[in-house]
Amino acid sequence: MAGPALAGRTAARERDERSALQRAMRRLPVRWRILGIAVLNSALALILLFLIWDGAKALSGAWIELRQVRQSEKLLVSLDSEAGRLQSLIHRYFNQPNPIVLAEIIRRREALMSRLRAQASIDPLTAGPAQALIEITERFITGFDDLRAVRSSLSSIYDTDVLRPARDMAGLYAIIDSTISGTPSLILPSLSKSRESFNAMLLAANAYYLSLSADAGDEAKRNAEVIERTAPVMIDLASTDLQRNALTALRDRALSIRRGLGLLTEHFTTQERLLREAIDGNAAAMGAMTSQLTTTIQERERAAQETFDSALRAVNAKVAIVALLFLFLVIGIGLAVSRSISIPLGELRQEMDAIVRGDYHRRVANLEARDEIAEMARAVEVFRANAIAKREAEAALRTSKDHAESALSELRDTQTSLIEAEKLAALGSLVAGVAHEVNNPVGISLTVASSLARRCDEFERETESGAVRRSRLSEFVAGNRDAANQLVTNLHRAGELIQAFKQVAVDRSHADRRSFELKESIDQIISSLRPGLKKSQIRLVVDVPDGIVMDSYPGPLGQVITNLFLNAVNHAFPDGTNGTISIVARTSGADQVHIVFRDSGAGMSEEVQRRAFDPFFTTRRGDGGTGLGLHIVYNLITRRLGGRIVLSSMAGAGTTFRINLPRVAPREELHPPAMAMSLET
To answer: Where are the alpha helices (H) located in 96-187, listed in sequence order?
Structure first.
């Protein structure tokens, strides 16, 4: 029993210590606690920065040396490669002289010397080997200059001692040929052999100069000796002094060429020796020195790398130790701060959940602390008190709501009655107009019928008296025919008006769905509306093409046209002003009809446009307006007809209603879409 009791006391003591720590924490605002963690983190960052800066100084020195060694190594590799390219260019130049190759050799030679001198000045530890490399390079370049001198001598010997005597010999052969042309001569066989040897000598000499072929040089010398041996024979057989002089000169030129070939051989030998010793030998010495210098630099690089790695490990160790120490410190303090925030917040959340569940009798705790969480707790306590007051107010509100609902029901019934009254008022206006229009043909018919009855009575009296003449009978028949025609015309007009009104009235009263032609339906509606324009100066223009068949509701469509027409007559043209009302319909695609109702009247302000379709809004409240005309139009178009309407207007510039209707109306009533209205300025 002692063990569990001791463990319980220990746990209780730890809880008390944690509670004491949390109470101490809550004496500080939350922002100060978070700021303390931030300050601790900043101190850690500063210490780490100092350690890194201290280690960076050691790393910097090691890195500078390491970078210098690596740069020296790269430079040596570049120098070795540059020396190899220079050696290759020199061999190429002496095998096939070219001014471009010579210019490249000179450029690379200067670049090589500049890099060697730069290396000696940059790295004092490699200054000695670099200076030796410079001396080898200078010998290499001196050998190249000697080779160029030998090459110049070769070119001069070839031009002076080979090509020039060869040109002279060609001229001498031509002179000899001219002396024996057309006449037999004893020197012809020897001359032919000499000429063949000359040609072979010239080809071999050119080949020897260009390719340094020893066989070609020997062949050129042998052919020159043949020319020398045949010349005395031909001199003895010559028939003229001119021939003998030419042959003597020919022998001398062959001797000169043979000597020139000997000089070429000597200079080619010198050139080969210089290439072998001054160029290839010094290039090999440069390679050996470069390899030795590279080995030295690589040893320095390994030493510098070890120094750098050692400094880096030391810096990493210091940073890791300090970072771990501060990490444990930050974690400990962070946990304490976190618990001082999370535990009170958890308790506050539980109390708020209780309030949400409707448990308003649980008082909020931790109201006495001085941090932000305590302020939130006090605010929740105020909210709890307000919620209690709200619940009491809601009970009183329910009683008031019951009374308000009955008043709202009465208001809705009144609104429905007003809308129906507005529809009937429009239909009544339509009836009055049609009655006035029908009255004209009926009155005329009645007048004609009365006149016809009076004429019949007069004709009957004349017949009874026996005073009827043939001319009188013809006059009576003509008058009766004219009266009958007038009766038929006026009664037919009255019948048309009555039939149109009947169809419109039936459509309005039943609102049945049926197929109809748009032009015919609008013409019937316009026929019933035209009487309203008799006393005004308004011109009505209708442009509806034939062939637009719709499966829709002609009654609601007629109500829309009628309401728009009456709205324009009453509002767009006040005080009997003149103007124009136009109705234009066009198909839009395969399944839409676009109707534009436009007037040239007074227009609307922006405020009136925004509220034009609102129920009970009117600008002529004192003149009997109900404010339901355009509201009914909007509801009929968007609900029953399944379309949309757009209003655009500007004060003083008329009003336009653009209506888009489907040719096949929807089967069920649609929810009204958002009211579409555009304002044109």
So the answer is: 99-122, 127-157, 164-179
Residues in the chain: 681
Question: Which residues sit opposite 140 in a β-bridge?
Answer: none
**Is the dihedral angle over the CA atoms 197, 198, 203, 208 positive or is it negative?**
positive
Six-digit token string for 140:
């290499």
For 397, phi then psi, to 5°, come to -70, -35
Which amino acid appears at position 356 of this protein?
V
Give the pLDDT confidence of 203-215 residue by residue, as tens digits.
Answer: 988 888 887 788 8
Say if CB 151 and CB 94 are below 8 A apart: yes
Helices (H), 466-549: 470-510, 518-529
Q: Cα–Cα distance between 646 and 491 in angstroms, integer?
A: 42
DSSP state for residue 537 in the 8-state scheme: -
DSSP assignment of 404-432 equals: HHHHHHHHHHHHHHHHHHHHHHHHHHHHH
Torsions phi, psi of 545, nearest 5? -75, 160
d(CA 100, CA 81): 20
According to DSSP, the β-strands at 579-588 and 538-543 are: parallel
CA distance 110 to 148: 17
642-661 burial code (b ≥16 CB/10 A, e <16):
bbbbebbbbeeebbbbbbbb
The predicted model scores a pTM of 0.33
Termini Cα distance of the chain: 95
Three-class secondary structure of residue 470 per DSSP: helix
Of 640 and 622, more confident:
640
Q: Are 139 and 246 in contact (CB under 8 A)?
A: no
Task: Choose the weakest-confidence range: 91-100, 291-300, 424-433, 449-458.
Answer: 424-433
Residue 201 CB neighbour total at 10 angstroms: 26
Residue 595 has pLDDT above 90, yes or no: yes
Closest Cα to residue 638, out of 616, 679, 663, 666? 666
Q: Which residues contact 384 (CB under 8 A, 6 or more apart)?
A: 355, 360, 363, 364
Q: Using CA atoms, how far apart are residues 592 and 604, in angstroms rounded to an integer?
A: 28
State yes or no: pLDDT of 443 exceeds 80: no
